[in-house]
Amino acid sequence: MPRNLFAQTFLAAAFLVLAAAPGAGAQKDDTEDHRRRPPPASGPAEITFYSDTGLRGTAVTLAGSQQSFASLRFNDKARSVEVKGGVWQLCSDSGLRGRCEYVDRTVRNLGDLGLSGNISSAQLTNYDMGPGGYDITFFANGDYRGAFLGFDEGEASFGQFRFNDTASSVMINRGTWLVCEHADYRGRCEFLDASVSDLSLLGLNDAVTSFRRYDVRREGPWLPPVPEPVYPPAGGGGAQGIEGEQSVFFPAPTFRGARISNREGAATRFCQDNGFAEAAYKAPGPVLSDVLCR
Q1: Which of 48, 70, 128, 271 is 20 to 30 A removed from 263 (C-alpha atoms)?
Q2: Does the pTM of the predicted model rise above 0.70?
């Protein structure tokens, strides 16, 4: 489960291309400033918005959330921002709606976030860690950008986090994992032991719904299920053959001699551990019983 609610949508600051304030009297171009990437702010929560890039022009300072910049007469005017402390959610529409991005350091050109002249509300938030602190982290955009969700354990469905079919890249920090296109680890699954900056390379862009750890030492090398053969019509006529399917019935499956809790996704995981694609049926109850694997 995510360790912090706000971390579910925190835009990883480590991946933002941000700018450092130039030294006194020094004149540096924007490209050089962006490469310097200032460290996260560490002071008391405070943020200042500027009407021009480079922290210039008319300024408005906040120490707390602001639902509408219209009341400050600063709606859609900010083009740079100085973060003195805290983590802030900046949104294009009032009421923290529209496009939102998270910042924890100074941004000398809000165009880097697609928000130049397009901020109408802001909120002070909290978070406990960045994306590198979780065992596995999914990002809404490629190259580990955008909103993210971090986990230390698998989940049978992204639906409860409103992140279903959203991930475009995944960062693997610890362990080996299966990521699957359907809930309960069904459908197409891929074995991952390293980060993937573009899930379209695996045919899973905006298509991940569940994921779990995969222990190669215990479960053996991952072998994707072999698709069932589709036979041509007999004799070339219009009659279609019936596609066969192998299935095995387990009346009371166990793991290391103990019965298995019947939690979400447990039946499919049991079947996959035994070389099958998914669970076709399981009986209701507190533990797994009458499981049909195919």
Answers
A1: 128
A2: no
